[in-house]
Specification:
This protein is mostly helical and about 80 residues long. The protein has one domain. Helices cover about 75% and strands about 0% of the residues. It starts with a helix and ends with a helix.
């Protein structure tokens, strides 16, 4: 399950480009400046979710809470499709 506190903190602190840079750094070096206290796969997952949330906030000019709701909806849609 997503760590909403972590996603919220990253989305508030970094731009989508900075988060993308952290994802690339994590993939290439195994480390990044955005998130460090997780295993490799967990870091990539949380950063990707934070990037999605931050992009929604900027592109749609919506609140963090609304962007997190959209993330949750998107995750539920993906899970329901995977169960079929």
């Amino acid at each position: 399950m997503a760590d909403l506190k972590t996603i919220r903190e990253i989305a508030n602190k970094y731009t989508p480009d900075q988060i993308e840079g952290c994802i690339i750094m994590q993939l290439e070096t195994g480390e990044n400046v955005c998130l460090r206290d997780r295993h490799h796969e967990g870091i990539i997952n949380e950063l990707a979710k934070a990037a999605f949330v931050k992009t929604l906030m900027m592109e749609k000019q919506i609140s963090l809470a609304d962007a997190l709701r959209e993330l949750a909806n998107k995750m539920r849609q993906m899970q329901s499709h995977a169960k079929r």
